[in-house]
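ok new one. same drill as before - structure tokens go in, u give me an amino acid for every spot. 328 of them this time. try not to just spam alanines like last time pls lmao
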């Protein structure tokens, strides 16, 4: 490895000679999914660092590989996974788990929250389980930068499956509305362009992230990664006095109007969430949250009010009907 490459700190493919770029640390990006071979590599490296030839021989059950070929295969397999690190002497090892940003020493050039850009995302879906076949029917991504909304992306999506009547009643999205629309794989590039490099924000972010991740994985074979911020979680810390932190309650608290017929539609909910986000971040600054690490520290301290335990209902072997919206 040359002195330039050592100073740069970025791995170089030994066959092509191209320098591999690091992942963005602040915004959303995609990376190769960790499949079976990467899992095998992780298991093998638990015993300690190994050179590429020994690693590939074990993981791929190949022997007598030329060193350059083994190096190339190792880079192809592992370079995009932050779980693996190449040492200065050319061996591979597991990376050390990174502590939360707020536990790390302060970095002088860590951006202020006001300097970050956010993609506020909302999805409408055929149900609540992407792992059992539910799909996106509509998606919106609202870009927030410099304290204001600067762009809105929205599109209906053909889910390539039926839409349950309950969902149509909730969202007013029917099969007739989406049957001629493009499936997600055909709009995936536009979606990724709308969220790339931004902090992913949503009201109940785990729900939207799971669905977008599942659709991106299905369309591209790649994995979504990056910073996420949940406005429900932020509202729980900042607005403990509210009876609920649903979008309706948070929007009403901040005087954010959701136009008639736009609730439970992707653009309407995303825009409302974006305006709530701006107010939540303003309130967070009043609690000393100037940087991302400050926000992580603030959210990690937990709720300011004890959570009420609901009485348990007797278990039943019958399926429970879906009678209300639980997504936001």
């Amino acid at each position: 490895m040359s002195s330039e490459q050592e100073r740069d700190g970025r791995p170089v493919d030994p066959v092509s000679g191209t320098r591999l770029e690091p992942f963005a640390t602040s915004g959303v990006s995609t990376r190769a999914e960790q499949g079976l071979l990467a899992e095998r590599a992780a298991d093998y490296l638990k015993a300690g660092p190994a050179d590429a030839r020994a690693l590939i021989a074990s993981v791929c059950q190949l022997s007598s590989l030329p060193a350059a070929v083994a190096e190339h295969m190792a880079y192809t397999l592992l370079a995009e996974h932050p779980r693996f690190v190449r040492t200065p002497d050319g061996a591979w090892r597991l990376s050390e788990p990174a502590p939360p940003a707020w536990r790390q020493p302060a970095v002088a050039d860590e951006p202020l929250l006001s300097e970050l850009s956010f993609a506020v995302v909302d999805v409408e879906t055929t149900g609540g389980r992407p792992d059992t076949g539910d799909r996106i029917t509509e998606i919106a991504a609202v870009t927030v930068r410099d304290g204001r909304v600067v762009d809105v992306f929205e599109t209906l999506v053909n889910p390539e499956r039926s839409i349950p009547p309950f969902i149509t009643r909730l969202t007013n999205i029917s099969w007739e509305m989406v049957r001629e629309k493009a499936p997600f794989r055909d709009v995936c590039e536009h979606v990724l362009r709308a969220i790339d490099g931004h902090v992913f924000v949503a009201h109940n972010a785990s729900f939207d992230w799971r669905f977008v991740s599942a659709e991106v994985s299905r369309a591209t074979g790649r994995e979504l990664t990056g910073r996420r911020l949940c406005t429900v979680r932020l509202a729980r810390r900042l607005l403990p006095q509210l009876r609920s932190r649903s979008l309706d309650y948070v929007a009403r608290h901040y005087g954010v109007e959701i136009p008639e017929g736009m609730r439970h539609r992707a653009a309407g909910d995303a825009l409302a969430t974006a305006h709530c986000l701006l107010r939540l971040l303003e309130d967070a600054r009043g609690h000393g949250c100037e940087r991302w690490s400050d926000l992580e520290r603030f959210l990690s301290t937990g709720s300011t009010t004890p959570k009420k335990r609901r009485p348990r209902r007797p278990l039943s072997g019958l399926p429970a009907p879906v009678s209300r919206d639980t997504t936001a």
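The beta strands are 29-32, 84-86, 92-94, 118-125, 136-145, 148-156, 199-202, 222-225, 228-230. and btw Confidence is low (pLDDT under 50) at residues 1-25, 303-307.
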